[in-house]
Design a protein that fits this description.
The complex is a heterotrimer of chains A (about 120), B (about 325) and C (about 200). By secondary structure, chain B is α+β, with helices and mostly antiparallel strands. Chain B is built from 12 helices and 12 strands. In chain B, the strands form 3 sheets. Chain B has a 5-stranded antiparallel beta sheet with strand order 2-1-5-4-3. A 5-stranded mixed beta sheet of chain B has the order 7-8-6-11-12. Classes of the chains: A alpha/beta (about 120), B alpha+beta (about 325), C alpha+beta (about 200).
Amino acid sequence: MALTALICDDSLLARNQMKKSLPAAFDAEIVTATNGLEALAVLRRQEIGVVFLDLTMPELDGVGVLEAIKAEKMDVFVIVVSADIQPEMQKRVMDLGALAFIQKPVNTDKLSAVMRQYGLI
Amino acid sequence: MNIDWLSGPLLQQLNSGVILLNQQLQIVYINPYICRRADIQLESVQGKDLFSAFPDAPKAWLSRKLNSVLSLQSPAFSSWEQRQYLFKLPHLRPISSANQYMAQNCNMLPLTEPTSGEHFVCLLIEDATDAYVYQSQLQQSNLQLQQVNRLDGLTGVLNRNYWQQQLEVEVQRAGRYQHPLSLLFFDLDKFKRLNDDYGHQAGDIVLIEVAKLIGSLLRETDLFGRYGGEEFAIILPDTPLQGAIEVAKRICRRVAATPIEYQQQQLMTSVSVGVSQFSTATSADELIQQADLALYQAKRNGRNQVVTYYPELIDSLKKVKS
Amino acid sequence: MTDLSFTEEQRDCLQELINVAMGLASDKLARFLNTFVHLQVPAIGLVNAAEIPEQFRGQYQGLNSSMISLGFFGDGGLRGETILLYQLENAGKIAALLGYDDDATSEAEMLTDISSILTTTFLNGLAEQLDNSFSYAAPRVISSRDNDFISKLEQTAFHWQLALKVDIRYELTDYSFDCNMILLIPGEAVLKLKTILDNVLADF
């Protein structure tokens, strides 16, 4: 069964950029969410293999999503994708269980490198 | 058409300075515009630190700025308006002797060598001496105009308009900070007769000389103005009544004791002075009115003397006038 | 009349591009200043340039504020002017950070230096994402220590049609402050910008 990936970002451009930058070798079905609450709803409803998570979002931000994932012990890989690259924030999301941190703008090279490292492709 | 040949001759003949530096701020290239003006040879400075080739350049500031260009890969700019020049270079405008060096605008641009990817910073230097000279002249003229607008043409003391503005300012200040403030009004005695006997030219000379003499008795902060005709006024900031009376008496004595020379003649004159202080008056107009009343009383008392305003003056003057 | 308004998609696209440009700028500034710098853009606003003075009247009135302008030109007719607005007391903090406390630099020079570093770093990041590159005019101080700053802003905004209001929050290691960046863009450049944004959107 193919993997399902969730792209969570409030910006349409960012979601589209993300979709387009996913390496061709990544065989997955893509679902999207526009804020943290939507993302959690998706995660609770269906099996998701990997989440590409933005940090700054309305309703519930990326940190909130990570906290919920940790609290509910969901089995999912989280790759944070953010323009917000402050080291303190990186440390915080890694401590909350994120797998990797990618700085926006995303491109296929950056994504492939990270995804290969974690065996996603 | 291939235009690769263009950059060489352009750099040679460009009417702006070009200095190319590597990441260690060592000189890689300087175009003839700079070489000729700085009287240096490219070969002798190539590879040298910018600040050893130009020891007068503002090192701390400029190196910080150049480093920001390199590390941020963003251009920076320096304007003659804030820093007249970066490098001491001569200019070709001999008329402006006041500024010895070329006023400069400088663009600092990040450049990357395409094959090696090595970063450089390029300084583009433009001569802004003309703008600098025009602005200096403009400032000078504005300053002169401002002076002219404030001074009385004959005596060189403040004119009435500006003096009155200053009085408003001082009255407000005295009110706000509870400082004493006094005012002197004075008038040349029998000035009309002096004009009739010796002519208007003599009258003018007396006004000029008396103004000069009194000016020499005042502090920097006192504001001395011509109120009209032969009437003058002095604002004495931070001066209580007693001090003002002292000044007024000194003025009276000195004017009466100092002959004024006019066409080999010694003209004698005197002044009557009225004094008022801010504590009895509450506005600039009142202060003027009170000093003027006191001056009138000094005239009535026989001239060449000082009278201080007191409230009863108004009544006594009413009686005289009615 | 030409329609200068943005669609929701165009607005979203611009907000995202600006967020990313700010992220890139913080990264560069942090490395340059050797301290933690975080720039955040809570929201952008597109408004008629004529409304700009009114929008800032309350925020800066009666304060010692400073207003610095920087013109930019890009390829494809993209051009405009950025205005950086901030309170002078904040300028002192950045000045110290940039090492300006140790020499006799004039206040005007310090202000233009700070502003051009902040704006060009950001604009370069924005240009990069638009596949463009900008060149810049010399920065100038429009107003500083000046009560008349709203009228100066009126005069400046008068020449432009669209204003892109970008509120920026700067966070430094132990200090944070807010300032405002305004991108003033002439009508024809707004149309170019809309086309560029549509192309970016079509690409994805």
